[in-house]
Amino acid sequence: MKRFSKEESSWMLYDWANSAYSVIIMTAVFPLFFKAAAAENGVSAADSTAYLGYTIAAATFILAMLGPVLGTIADYKGCKKRFFAFFFLIGVAGTAALACIPGESWVLLLICYTISTIGFAGSNVFYDAFLVDVAAKERMNMVSARGFGLGYIGSTIPFLLSIAVILSAQAEVIPLSAQAAGRIAFLITAAWWGLFTIPLLRRVRQRYYIEREPRLVISSFKRLAGTLKQIRKYRALFLFLLAYFFYIDGVGTIITMSTSYGADLGISAANLLIVLFVTQVVAAPFSILYGRLAERFKGKTMLYAGIGVYMIVCTYAYFMDSAFDFWILAMLVATSQGGIQALSRSYFAKLVPKQHANEFFGFYNIFGKFASIIGPLLIAVTAQLTGNSSAAVFSLILLFVIGIAILAFVPEETA
Length: 415
Prior knowledge:
- The protein is mainly α.
- Helix content is 81%, strand content 0%.
- The protein has a single domain (6-202, 218-407), classed as Up-down Bundle (Growth Hormone, Chain: A), CATH 1.20.1250.
- It contains 16 helices and no strands.
């Protein structure tokens, strides 16, 4: 394997940068911070889980609506990096703003979280599309998987810093309240994300594009309408997007709702943070392993393997009732969460026309984001109707079954 180029390394470093957000804000600290703030204001555990699910659904719906249109415009020369930078800055600013919201204002916390999530997910649309600009087709699996691996490794550093501050505050080693410690974690996340994005902004450039046209926005809508009419002609892309729609729903829901689910089981915040840290450490080598195995057994085969692991996770979650069970579940997720996302990204990148990468990654985003609406809503509604989070997690197995069934009809990635 040839050494990674400066562009490839700079692109991969963004996974290192923004994974701090996905771990600290989306998965670990913010859900616990929010649930504590909601509880202090008389909101029940089941309702706070539901409100968080509704918020995630709302944020992903907004971005799903914007994704294809923005992606179509960004395919024009010189636009991709501008859109990336815009959403990246929104995300960093929204994350830093979380530190300024009073704990009793739990509604404002959700609003600010929505803004930061839109920035995070929006920047990822254009970041993913940059894969066609930085890597040759035969290197995409490894570059994408190595990016996820770096993300898991890199996220452990700000996560450790955040855990150290939070646990020290809880043990009264440092004179900070739990809320103040959480706010410091938000600031650490924003600083880490911003600092390690600089190499991508400096070195990565848009190699594949279409020339600008008069009336850029109107032309973009016309191109988007034309693609929508013809998307069924791209059989491999269309089938893959349908499969992705279902299985990535379950993946994303399990990741974003895991700490809330663990808290409902009575697992302490300290134990949850430790479990999530170990999950990141374990996930890093497994993400890289998925990339290597995909070179030998094909990306599609490894996608089957990852989906199979998640089906086991859903089944096991139904019977989980202790912290030890949560550890087992977390380790199972760690073996496949990075690999399945990395190979989905590279599999799709191999199928898209390079000069229209942003437009097609806009559809990749809309399928993924609309799926992310269904999962949290399913968790939220089931949790409120049954009062049992385990039943809600088990219901996600249906999404994986449908996804793997459709994936069987997708042509190989060399199609």
